[in-house]
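seq:
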Amino acid sequence: MSRDDTFPVPHGFLWGVSTAAHQIEGQNTNSDWWHKEHAAGTHIKEPSGDAADSYHRWPQDMDLLAELGFTDYRFSIEWARIEPVQGEFSRAQIAHYRRMVEGARARGLRPMVTLHHFTVPQWFAERGGWTAPGATDLFARYVEAAAPVFETGVAHVCTINEPNIVAIFGAIDRLGVGAIGPAGLPLPDKDISAALIDAHRRAREVVKSISPDIKVGWSVATQACQALPGAERISAAYSWPREDVFVEASRDDDWVGVQSYTRTRVGMDGPIPAPMDAERTLSGWEYYPPALGEAVRHTAQIVPSVPIIVTENGISTSDDARRIAYTKGALKGLAEAMDDGIAVRGYFHWSALDNYEWGSYAPTFGLIAVDPATFERTVKESGRWLGTMGRTARCSGTDET
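struct:
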């Protein structure tokens, strides 16, 4: 593939954007995150409220994505809506998400459905969350109940989004916000990590029993750990429980998702903060486009036989020109990895919309801006630029990777 300002999207390559239900739907009142947002004494700056009102406006959102040229759309379904009370499943909510699948296909968007994206029903949290007895059984039961959403017309299912971050959230809940240090996140909770790996495998079995042709995987947050000279073993020890153990758990999957935004440098004493003069995003992360290519290569080293899908990559910024520049740099590294023979099957940008970023609306990741008062959507130049590549691929008929 040639190296220029565009990414030559191969025919059949998944070229899309990602969203998460809680972050865009609004009024997810039966979820644990809704309760956290309204509890006193937390680190959460503002509640999600109506979010982008995408629960009602999803047809408009999909219209825009299809018009821009994207061929794929990754979205999550909300367990707390489908099973608001333990053992009671909402046929209306299952039908709602099924309409989204059908709506995506009608617009020429291939849907990737994520079954769990950070949130759980409040009743599940109250009974002890992932480490309570029978937790993975309950998740498997939910997946089976949600089968009408994805059993036809969906080629890819993501079981759990960023299980390593879910386990880190668990550690923070146990240790307190002070566990977040200037140089990195705490270790994921070991018991939650083990439960999530089991939940993933149980969910994969359920999905395969419903439709064996669905390609099942999960997505892992990857930090592109860089070992300073002499710190290779320390870096490996840092990365293993935070990322690599979850990548290893995908060895029998149809694909593994890479979600990359920045890097972590690791020295002899552990992770090192980014330089004081480094450019930072609105999330406070170092602006580092090569992270994607490095994360993809690292993942391929751990599970060389498992195809990779980039399920998230993006930047929170108010300067859309920097978003385009960042994405160009990230795609350059991705294309070079593919040139070297790494099996990458798709790229999903985070995110379709400016949305609720787990405590604040300030970090804007979207290719489409959303007015918080009127919910009016405004496509950014980055959305037009990135979507055009998908339209070009549709017309070119180039060989599939």
